[in-house]
Amino acid sequence: MLVTALTGDVGAGKSTLSRVWRDMGANVVDADEIAKEQWMCPEVAGVARARWGDDVYGPDGRPDYAKIAECAFANEAEHRFTIELIHPRTRAEITRRVNALRGWIVAEIPLLFEAGVHDWVDHIVFASAPRDARVARNRARNWDEREILRREKNLLPSLEKQKKSDLVLSNRRALFACRGCLRAAHVLRLARGRAKNCAAPCGEKARRMC
């Protein structure tokens, strides 16, 4: 089993890259999808309603993810509350799914460093992109620059996370997915090299692919 942890800037194209790698044979575990599932748990729903009101769930009882995000990213206190409510459950389920798989596994975890790196991670790939490119790419999600900044304000600085990663993929053009294909073999080689050189700090091994 070889586990690639994929993280990166908000809106930088992590899901695009994980889809490319899935098409190449990787088993993908999506932390965002798992986190969304946790909001449907009755216990979580009860705590969320008590904190934010009944409006964060629709008349059918399903989570209103836009309203949940508005509450969760409102300030540092609400962000911390959300992390403490959702992340332990999400981490446990990510670990369960990873352990049930074999072969090459890509765990797409946006808050990898904020929540703590799992001990089963073999290497870390960071997807980066300039803010203007991220804004343009995420217009379809109705995210403007203010929304991206709101989601980033309680996160660790991008450069700090890049230094902790083994590989940085820069998503500067629309051909990011093609470059991801071309770099996949390098990711695997990097993982094998890390196993032989595990004493070296991550920052010393980090490389940037433009």
Provide an overview of this structure.
The protein has 210 residues and is α/β, with parallel strands linked by helices. It has one domain: P-loop containing nucleotide triphosphate hydrolases (Rossmann fold, 3-Layer(aba) Sandwich), CATH 3.40.50. Helices cover 53% and strands 14% of the residues. The protein is built from eleven helices and six strands. The chain has a six-stranded parallel beta sheet, sandwiched between helices. α1 crosses α10 and α2 packs across α5. The C terminus is likely disordered.
Stretches where pLDDT is under 50 for at least 5 consecutive residues are 195-210
What is the CATH domain class? Answer: Alpha Beta
Q: Radius of gyration in whole Å, from Cα?
A: 17 Å
Q: Helical segment tally? A: 11
Please tell me the total number of domains. 1
SS strand fraction: 5-15%
Number of strands: 6
Shape: globular
Features:
210 residues; disordered C terminus; six-stranded parallel β-sheet; alpha/beta; Rossmann fold
Helix and strand topology:
Blueprint: E1 2-8, H1 14-23, E2 27-30, H2 31-38, H3 42-52, H4 65-72, H5 76-99, E3 104-108, H6 112-115, E4 123-128, H7 131-137, H8 145-152, H9 158-164, E5 167-170, H10 176-196, H11 202-205, E6 207-209
Parallel strand pairs: 1-3, 1-4, 2-3, 4-5, 5-6
Q: What does this entry show, briefly?
A:
By secondary structure, this protein is α/β, with parallel strands linked by helices. Helices cover 53% and strands 14% of the residues.
